[in-house]
Each structure stands twice: as structure tokens, then as C-alpha cells.
Structures
1.
Amino acid sequence: MTDALVERLETSSSGREVSKVVVRQNGAREEFSGDVVVASCGAINSAALLLRSANDKHPNGLANGSDVVGRHYMGHVNSVLMAISKCPNPTVFQKSLSVNDFYFGSKDFPYPMGHISFVGKLDGETLKAGAPAIAPGFTLELMAQHSLDFWLTSEDLPEPSNRVMLDRDGNIVLSYQPNNKEGHKRLGAKLKDLMAQQRKCAMHGHECHQGLFARNLYIGQRIPLAGVAHQNGTIRFGRDPKSSALDPNCKAHEVDNLYVVDGSFFCSSGAVNPALTIMANALRVGDHLIQRMS
Ligand SMILES: Cc1cc2nc3c(=O)[nH]c(=O)nc-3n(C[C@H](O)[C@H](O)[C@H](O)COP(=O)(O)OP(=O)(O)OC[C@H]3O[C@@H](n4cnc5c(N)ncnc54)[C@H](O)[C@@H]3O)c2cc1C
């Protein structure tokens, strides 16, 4: 089924199971039901769906007696950092490097800093989104052809006030104050130090990284709030129904046939890209569901 928006989940009169999945498709309302209902709308939209599904048995939002649904939004402290050199970088599939040397800290800063990798190769089009004009006549396309493009990820910490909410009309509101920024700043500085230690290039010698600009040029940009690619944490799992909405199998503590299987369940964002963890957890919960249904 495509182009279908789940608007709300309705429960039986006891409030203990989801009895209807209310869907809007091509302007028409449809209803579905199942023995087990799995929400997997992503951390922002799954939280919004549960909040939107409030009823008299779940006045604070479905499965939200703990008041954690929508809270602890995390999305990583991310930056893209470009190092521009005289050598062109003709690579297409660049995501081949990861550096975790500073994940848990370093001698001069014994706290976690995060993870360094390459970001998918930037081009002039992607740079239009925010790169500063750095030199007259130096087009964004040329800049991209000469750049090594790094992706820096640091952990942001679970903060109850960083949250997904709904406004009066049911629209999503995301309220977020970045935290844990010092480690991220230090990680960027570490990368710059490493780049400064590189040896001469075979083609341009020591001039490689000095030719186009007076010195190596690093352009760094923090990913702003709208960059919600790594959204997680909004329907956290745990053993205690007072402090978590899902149990260790990602079943809602308060609803017997409702599971949430996406980035919502994280209690901590870690400092690595989230998709593989989300997939691994989905396989784990899948095994549990097979057992339950047999
Ligand atoms: C540009 C970009 C690059 C990324 N690169 C990486 C990377 O390199 N490595 C990595 O690990 N991660 C990466 N991510 C993050 C990764 O894609 C996400 O963490 C992951 O896909 C989240 O999985 P999810 O199951 O939580 O939600 P999603 O994959 O977002 O799935 C949610 C689905 O639910 C649908 N949906 C939402 N609300 C409703 C509703 N009410 N009714 C019906 N359907 C609904 C959405 O349309 C969507 O299809 C990237 C993300 C972006 C945007």
C-alpha cells in the first residue's frame, strides 16, 4: 500500500489493544485491524502518531503514561567538513573511511568526541545548500571536484525537553537545544590537525594543499535542526514503565499488541550512523514477533 497516511491508532474500550488503524489514502478514510500493529514511521512521526492517538484511556497520547513519548529527541551533533586541495578528488563512492581513534577521547581531552567518516561525495548542487563563496570565480562545482568531504558525528545526550510535540492543529513541532557540543568542536580540531600532518602528494608535492589557496582550506558546517536524518530516541525502550514507553521487545508497556520498530527506541544516540542499529533491532523484534504469533 503506498501514498497512505496513518492518521491515528484507536484502541478497544479497555485501552489495552489497538483495534483500528485509521488511514487516509487518496483523500478517503480507511480502517484496518490486525492481531499485532507495528508503528515504524521514524522517530518523529511515530511519536507524533502516538500523541495524535490520545483517547480517554490514554489522555497523554497512546502508550504514554510515562510521559516519555516525544521526549529525549536526539539526532546527533553532525558537521560536514571539506578539505580542499590542488589535487582533484574524482571518486564517486567515497564512503570508505572511518576513524574512531577519538571515539572515547584522547590524552588531551579524556571525553568522548565521536566518529569521523567520509560523507557521500559532494557536488556543486549539494554545496548550493550552504557553502560560503570562498574565492571569486571558483565555482561550487570546481570546489567539489577538489574536496575531501568529511562527516563528523558526535553523540547528543537524551534531554527530556528536546521533544516532538503537536500544535493545536496536530502539526509536528520539534523543540531542540543542542548539547554536548565541546566534544564535537574538539573532534573537528582533531581532524584539522590530522590533515595538517599529511605527507606530500605524488603529483603536486608539498604544494598540493597550498596551491589553490594560501593554506589548506577547511570549510565546516554544522547540520541545522532541519537536518533530522538521524532522528531517534522519542519512544524509548526499557524495563521500567515509569521511564520508558516500550518494553525490551519494543512492545508498548501499556498496549498489548502495539510495537514501535524504528529509530524511536534508542536510549542513547551513540556517535555512529543509526541505520544499521535500527535494522538489527528490527530483525531482533521480528524474531520475537514470529515466536509470539506462533
Ligand atoms: C539524506 C540522508 C542520508 C542518510 N545517510 C545515512 C547513512 O549513511 N547511514 C546511516 O546509518 N543512516 C543514514 N541516514 C539515516 C537513516 O536513513 C535513518 O536513520 C533510518 O532510515 C531511519 O529508519 P526508521 O525506520 O526509523 O524510519 P524511516 O526510514 O524514516 O521510515 C519511516 C517511514 O514511515 C513513513 N511514515 C511516516 N509517517 C507515516 C504515517 N503517519 N503514515 C504512514 N507512513 C508514515 C515514512 O514515509 C517512511 O517511509 C540518512 C538519512 C538521510 C535523510
2.
Amino acid sequence: MTNDWQDLGPLGALRATALQEVQVGRRTVALSYANGVFGAISSACNHVGGPLGKGRLDGDYVVCPWHYWKFHRCTGEGEPPFEQDRVPRYELREDAGHLWIRAEAATRRHKTPHPPHKLTLPGDRGDGPVRVLGISTTSMTDAQPRYSTSEALLEIALAQARDDGGAETRLVRLGALRFRHCEGFYSKSAQACTWPCSITQMDPEDQMERVYEGIVQWADVVLVATPIRWGAASALYYKMAERLNCVQNALTIHNKVLIRDVVAGFIITGGQDNIQAVAGQQLGFFAELGFVFPPFPYVAHSRGWSAEDMENNEIYVRENAELHEGTRELADRCIELALRLRASSACPAEIARGGRKAHAARSPASAPSRDTAGDRESTP
Ligand code: FES
């Protein structure tokens, strides 16, 4: 064999694994064995660089472990009808009981252009009225609606924004949306957690897109209302928060600030307690997304640990004029800050990264960052 062929090892050992990654010089190759035939293709997925050799086989297709794109294990072509979307393939030879691979790929990578997702297009906030998005995170049965203290106060805030502040308003009830739980793409790799969200790109039925579009492209103000459930924000709030990881991760891996000059305020109600912890979590999380806050950025209400008479809690919230007034003033403060931010932006388009999440301040001796998708090879 000439020098551009590399010995991968004894055939018997290589036949024992259906799909694996092997190193060929500085390139990582997905080597497969099925039905008596070896196949070798680049291990870097055409999508955002997922490790194909760490995926699984589905017939003669390698399934990417990140978002499940498929490539033929021998030809590198995408699954029908995406054959033109292909990764490089490598020549293999069996000789003297060993498997050999040619170091240079036999074919070139080809990425078929895909139309941009609408969430990647620039938002158009325009010069019109301030836009206020209310997000209610309480849960209830559609056919059997009940009075929700958090949602009732949110409706008061939106009415104030509309009637007194001249704002355009929207209300999103998470309980009415069909959206999937975050499936842990970030846990596979920071690069696997994409903007737009991987689920949103793969599942047109998933309605989390309404939240993304609302907060990234539409709103000047976002008001989030939550009940307190066992000392924490609602389960729907956390379901939404997990899906918003992709907004924060766009900053972590691409230094892309998706939320700029958008104001957040919070409405927190609980029959019992833990307002400060719920507010603290919300302020920390929304600050990390890029939101800014007015002075005194939340209104909250709780009657304490021993108040089990929830029917009286409902009456209290329905009838408490001071609580309603405090909620209206929160809407006013948010709109006032939004108008100031329209006149004079306060939020950077980029931030210094050293010391930021996932960006340790490096010493000169540290290993270089693997910061770009698809750097598993230089593509031929
Ligand atoms: S499907 Fe391979 S990286 Fe997304």
C-alpha cells in the first residue's frame, strides 16, 4: 500500500462494531460494518457538525445522534429525497487480513441550501405603539376554566398597557399551546442546541414558536405571570424556560444576542409563599437571556404558609384594589423603560466572553477552544 492508505487494523476486530469513529490523519471518519460490507464516510454531519460515527445505523443509513439527519453509510448521500446533501465518502480495501482506508476522501461534501427559518429573519419592531406580550404560565383544563390569580393580574396589566399606555398587546397562554419538552440537545453538546430550537426546526406542529417569535421578534415588553407551586414557578414556566435555553445558548456559542432592549416584568401569586425565591429565579434567568428590568420589576402576592382557605385567596385577589393598582403601575414602568430604550439603546449586540458561561478565561497554556461546528475535519 502507498502512503495515502492508512491501516485501520485487523478485519475481525473492526467487524465487531456496527458503527464507530476512526481517526484518519486529522479527519474523523464514521466507519460502519453491516451485511458483510464496510462503509466509510466523514463523521461530520452536514447540519451543524454532529458526530455521525457516534450515531446509529438504520438499515444502510447512519443516523446523526444530534438531530437525526441520515446519510448513506457507503456513499455519504442524504436519505431520499436529499441525496444531493452529502458528506464525503472514503475508499476502503481489505488486504492481508487488515482494513485500509484512503486518507483523501473520494467525494466532496455538498450542502444543499435550505431556506432560512423565519425565526432567523430580523424582527421588525417598527415605530408603532409599544408592543407588550403577556405570557401566562398557569395550567388549567380548557373546558373547565377556573379563576387564576396570576392570569387575572396579567390581564389587568395588559389592559393598562393597552388602554392607558397605548400599547399593542398579545396574551399567550402556555396552557393552550401544544409544545414539547426540551429533549436535552444541549446535554449532547452545546453545538447541538441550535437557534431556532432543534425541536422547532424539526416539528412544524410544535407551538413554542409563538413564544420565540413573540419575545425575539415582536415584543418591546414581556410580562410573565406565574402561580407558585410548592415554592417554585409553575411547571409550564419551567417547561418554557428549558426550551428557552437555545436563546441563551446562541450567545454562548455564537455570541449572538437575540434579545436586545426588551423589558421584562413579572407577576407572581401563590396561596402560600416563597415569592422571593421565585422572583430571584425569574430575574436571574431573564437577565441571562438579555432582558432588562424596570425599577421594582415584579408584583407579587401571597397570604402565607398557613392560609389554606384558597377560596378567600381568590376573593382577595379579585377585590384588592391596591394589588390591581400595583399591577397597573408595573405595566406603566415597563412601558416607560421600553420607550426610553427605543430612543436610546442600552443593550450591546455582543458581549465580552471571557468568564461568561462556557467561556472560561483561558491561560496561554490552555487547550484551544472547539468553538465552531463541523471542525471535525477540514472538508475536502
Ligand atoms: S442532524 Fe447532524 S448535526 Fe443536526
